[in-house]
Design a protein that fits this description.
This protein is of the alpha/beta class. Helix content is 48%, strand content 12%. The chain has helices spanning 9-21, 23-29, 47-62, 70-80, 95-107, 114-143, 148-162, 175-185, 189-192, 199-204, 224-237, 251-263, 274-288, 304-316, 341-359, 389-393, 440-444, 447-456, and strands at residues 83-84, 89-90, 213-218, 242-246, 292-296, 323-327, 362-368, 396-402, 409-417, 425-429. It starts with 8 loop residues before the first helix and ends with a helix.
């Protein structure tokens, strides 16, 4: 029988929120909890057990939190469980209670600190494991089947279960494991590798996945910061939450870029057109639904560890980021002291990759290219300043060079990609005055692109 504190409604509702939305929490407990752990022993309805079953089954099938699909999954459950066709009896669940729990979870602002919840769940599971093991020992003793070896095995299993595991193995060559992989691959690839919303790149290759790092490389004033801001907006449009660290440019300047990019108003006219800005921003703010959080690190010395701390604090407040974008790498502080810049960057990029992998985040940053002529079009890996090792540590690296067709044109070159096509490029038009790294309308209006488009038609 579960402890009384475990069945407390506020705790269980908050726990269901984590199971439905928090990827890192599911990595720790998604296979250790079952829907039976939410079964009420107080004569209440089984609504929490139903929601837990939906969330856990979705995670085990797709290795993704059910997230925004929870409502449709619950409504589908209600529709398909109205009547048992064999017995013609109604299922025993409270529809009103089920919808109230759903509303609590989808509200998105009622999470308790993640660490506190993890401690609670760990305590519950450990107590449950100990109790079940004691019951097993007593049963075997009564039956006369308890041996020293069996007793030792039970004790070791308790110790292994309650210990914190850093690495776990998985049996790859099983039918169940194969079926799990087949189901996982049925999901749309854009969900696991979101688009950059730059047409020629999205058509030719997939971008980075969770735990991966992308990097923009370019000379001074080529638009690296705008490229990162564009990526943040592209992710937000795809319903991903972004934690954006600005380490070089003041927050006011970054905010102006986002306002201009979202509303189509020139940066230098934002101050002159406040009412127009309010009207247009209201529409986009509704669509993006608070999915970008800015962190001003310009006055601080910020390390990757500091970024992880911010991520966890935001997570405790209910904002579980899907992506972390850092503008840009030259302002990240290494923990150690190094005489060579390459050694410092090696630590920074290794720590950044581990941070992304630990919480399964999409990561982007930018790096400076070597000094060169202003009209260089193709930026390749060997033109990276300080340390070419950055490119080796990144999953996807995009060079930003000067376009040939217009002063505001930029040539993007896929210099490296571990998960997709590489060594190809294309020219785009920017709109720096509107805070746009990729002006799609002007890009498609470029003469060569227009000819290619007419041939395709």
């Amino acid at each position: 029988m579960a402890a009384g504190w475990w069945e407390e409604s506020t705790l269980q509702n908050s726990l269901l929120s984590f199971l439905s939305r928090d990827r890192n929490f599911l990595k720790n407990f998604g296979t250790r909890l079952t829907k039976a752990d939410f079964k009420s022993n107080r004569g209440e309805g089984n609504s929490r057990e139903i929601v837990a079953g939906i969330a856990l089954n979705y995670w085990r099938q797709y290795h993704e939190p059910v997230g925004g699909l929870l409502k449709s999954e619950v409504l589908d459950y209600i529709e398909s469980h109205k009547i048992d066709e064999r017995s013609k009896k109604r299922f025993t669940y409270n529809k009103k209670e089920l919808l109230e729990i759903l509303e609590f979870i989808t509200a998105g602002d009622k999470l308790v600190p993640a660490v506190a919840m993890e401690d609670k769940v760990s305590k519950y599971l450990e107590n449950k494991m100990i109790k079940d093991s004691l019951d097993q020992v007593l049963t075997m003793q009564e039956e006369g089947t308890l041996t020293k070896r069996k007793f030792g095995d039970i004790c070791r299993s308790v110790n292994d279960f309650t210990s914190k595991h850093r690495l776990e193995s998985k049996d790859f060559l099983t039918k169940t494991s194969l079926e799990d992989r087949i189901v996982r691959r049925t999901k749309d690839s854009s969900e696991s590798r979101p688009f950059l919303m730059i047409d020629f790149i999205d058509k030719k290759t997939r971008a980075i996945g969770r735990g991966d790092l992308g990097i923009f490389v370019g000379p001074l004033k080529m638009g690296k910061s705008l490229a990162l801001a564009h990526t943040a907006v592209a992710y937000a449009k795809q319903r991903l939450k972004v934690l954006y660290f600005t380490l070089e440019d003041p927050t006011d300047e970054v905010e102006d870029r986002f306002d201009a990019a979202l509303t189509g108003i020139d940066i230098d006219k934002l101050r002159l057109l406040p009412n127009k800005l309010r009207r247009r921003f209201k529409k986009f703010a509704t669509v993006l639904n608070s999915r970008i959080h800015l962190v001003d690190g310009t006055a601080e010395s910020v390390s990757i560890g500091d970024m992880e701390e911010v991520y966890l604090r935001e997570r405790d407040h209910g904002f579980t980021a899907d992506a972390v974008i850092v503008d840009y790498d030259d302002y990240v502080r290494p923990v150690g002291k190094y005489q060579k810049k390459a050694e410092a960057f090696n630590e920074i990029y290794v720590d950044y990759r581990r941070f992304l992998a630990k919480y399964q985040l999409y990561g982007w940053t930018a790096a400076q290219a070597q000094r060169m002529k202003e009209d260089v079009q193709v930026i390749t890996a060997n033109k990276t300043a300080d340390d070419i090792g950055k490119i080796r540590k990144a999953t996807m690296a995009i060079g930003i060079g000067q376009g040939k067709r217009h002063v505001n044109a930029r040539y993007l070159y896929l210099m490296a990609h571990k998960r997709g096509r590489q060594h190809f490029g294309g020219e785009i038009m920017t709109g720096f005055s509107q805070g746009l790294f990729y002006d799609r309308e002007r890009t498609l209006a470029m003469p060569e692109l227009s000819k290619e488009k007419s041939k395709e038609v």
